[in-house]
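Hey L., structure's done. Input below.
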Amino acid sequence: MKKLFHKIIASWPQKSLLRSSKSRYRKGFASGFTLIELLVAALIASLMVVVMLGFLVGVLDSDRKETVKTNAQEELLAAISYMSDDLQEAIYIYGAQGLSATDGINAQLPHVQSGAGNECNPTGTNTCTPILVFWKRFTFNPDSTATYSNTGATPTSEIIGCMPYGDATQLAACQANSTSGGRAYGRDTYTYSLVAYYLKNDTQLPENSGWSNTARILRWEIRDGYVGYCSTGGTIGVTTGCPVATKVTTRPTSTLIVPPIVPVALSDPNRYFVLPSTGFNRPDFITQGGLAAWRKYANFDFAANPFVTLVDFMDDTAYVTTQGGNAVAAGTGTTAAATSPFKIPVGRNDTSTPQRNLDCDDPSVGVGTTDSLNNFTQRVPADFANSDGSNPAGLSSFYACVSPNTVTARIFLRGNAIARLTTPATNRDQRPPTATNITFFPTADVRSFGRSQIGLGR
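Output:
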């Protein structure tokens, strides 16, 4: 065994088994990377990171743009659906001539009354265009509770559907049957209201206004009250046990009514359960001339009847003739000289009496009237360029075809999704529609029919 061990040692390579740390260091250094190689590798890695980050930023930006386009389209559809549902209760819609400054109720609408609280005209400069103005039925919820207009009434409040009851036993029975349809009154408790939809130009608003600084659609409403027939000798319901306090509203003298329209005297003889809106005057529903001649009372109050924003981020692109809509309607659904990325398919009204619009007659783009002899259609606003004062907002992102006699309207909306990328929308250079960004301006249109009827004598 000892001899074998000596042979193994003798045959081992003649190299030292113990190497200095310096030799090991040199061997390791010789097998590593040079400084230049490390710098090149770092540069390549940096370029790859930059490329990947750029790709990621592009994906996120594309996703953000698609999101704002989707949101714009959804809000536009929700707004046009709301207006369509609102119009289903309409009994009369004003056309372009009914809203003109010289013929109709334009002077009675809130956009021409300057003052505090008026979003359209706070300082004497109107920025709103009335598009849809109509009378409609307003139905009270019979299951809701309302307080009597006179604070001295007994009881002070009552379920609207049970309002005509004055006897305590009958009232209790009515309230007990409120969920089973056991009421004798109140199931068709309605009144009439005047509704106006506006396109407001917000481009001059300060950036801290809280709005997008583009354009908005505003809604305004003023309504009649609910007459308390049970009050001391009413013609409907029992006459005993009614609230002992009378509910009489006296109208102030109104300089806007010359001569008085309705009622003949400037005092309201009705006794109300729910008071009318401040400034409301009951119109003459017997003739269309009575509706055109409607005048509100002078005690109108914007605090009591405010504007409500329906939708923001409407397109605020100023109207230009290349969009179309400035030639008299030809009935073909197209407008001459329209070269803009978006084209207005409805031309101007003609100059007949009453004004007519063949494009609004066309069912493909208008309301599709079938009796052109007795019915007529008009575009609102009548002139996008505002040469006749019908479009103070100076925009074309909200307009309508209206058939007053058939109580039918075709509504057109155009939104602005690019403005949603910055809030407030201050980057105006990227917002005008072009062939490359036209998808950021979603559109929607709907045809709506008024289905209510006027109850004469109500």
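The two ends are 131 Å apart (CA to CA). The chain has six helices and 13 strands.

-- N.
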